[in-house]
Amino acid sequence: MADFRLRAVPLLSRVGADRSDELRTDIDAAVAGWTDAAVLWVDGRGQALVAGNTVVLSSTGGLGDTPPAEAVFVGRLPDGRHAWALRGPLPDPGDAAARVVDLRRGGVDLDDLSAQLLVTATALLNWHDNARFSPIDGTPTRVVRAGWARADPVTGREEFPRIDPAIIALVHDGADRIVLARQHGWPERMYSLLAGFVEAGESFETCVVREIREEIGIDVTDVRYLGSQPWPFPRSLMVGFHALGDPAQAFAYLDGEIAEARWFSRAQVCAALAAGDWTTPGSTAEYLLPGAVSIAREIIESWAYAEQG
Length: 309
Prior knowledge:
There is one protein chain. This protein is 19% helix and 27% strand. The protein is built from six helices and 15 strands. A hairpin with a 2-residue loop joins strand 2 (47-51) and strand 3 (54-55). The model has no long low-confidence stretch (mean pLDDT 94). Pfam families: NUDIX (PF00293).
């Protein structure tokens, strides 16, 4: 299997709202839509209220006639309303069926609109939490562009949300085996793909080769792009690839991050996928693979089931 494609859009890459970036600079239009806007509250642990497969959106009642300074604009809903997000305690749901979830554990159950709103809100709010001062001189900054930038009030210099790009790669033998690895601190049955952050002056493809060499000591070729997914924990973008490796080359854990790596057959991978994932309570599966909310799961499934159409 020299090549394959993702079978579906990674769950946190789904689109359900119009990002309406023009409203970030058209302040009058943004303010005009505030009265009828919907508000997504995200608490300090990155959790939101969800009813069914939809995030609970509150009214702007009690929040003033204009968006609070710390509010971030996260898009326009299909019905035309503006959607904003705020960090703070979750409101009274007013619905006995509502539950508190975060993206890692509850993202898989969200509809496309809710997934996009929550992942955008989480990413922006996480950035604001850690970007309150100018990286140049330490001056306190203020929120501008409807939450999509912060500005130095003296110089006017703007800072934009930082994203840390990282690669995640499935290493295969060109046929029916892939490499799965386990980090130190993970349970012995838990395995996933290899991943790492892109360094300055480095392309994604070069990063794939370097990270795999550093983590498990093997050389890979034929690096091919698969897809990407935001991973706002706190501010990553996971960019997925697959690459060809040689099973005859011995593993060497050069950077100390990986505790164990193994070649797994397609049959073993399919059996592990059928058993659920590492979020499945009480699972007795021989191997535990990533949860469905991650791009790692989508890449593994896409490889495992590629020949089945």
